[in-house]
Fold this sequence. Notes:
Blueprint: E1 10-19, E2 32-39, E3 44-49, E4 61-68, E5 71-76
Parallel strand pairs: 3-5
Antiparallel strand pairs: 1-2, 1-4, 2-3, 4-5
Amino acid sequence: MPETLAPGARGRLVSFTVIRKAPAAFVGEPLYAVAIVDLDGGRRMVGRLEPFEPAPALGSAVRLVRFLTATPVFAPA
């Protein structure tokens, strides 16, 4: 059975990009960052990164702080 992801999970930031012009489904959101995170334990996930300014260093520690609908949101640890 797969491990459940819960707030507080930790990992490392692999990459991220800032979305400056959102697609139609996200038109109400100004800027947001999409990140790739390698979780401790070997899983790789895509989620949001908040805050993303100033830009965090790639490889820096992050933690899962909440879910936005079903999307994980990570922040610097």
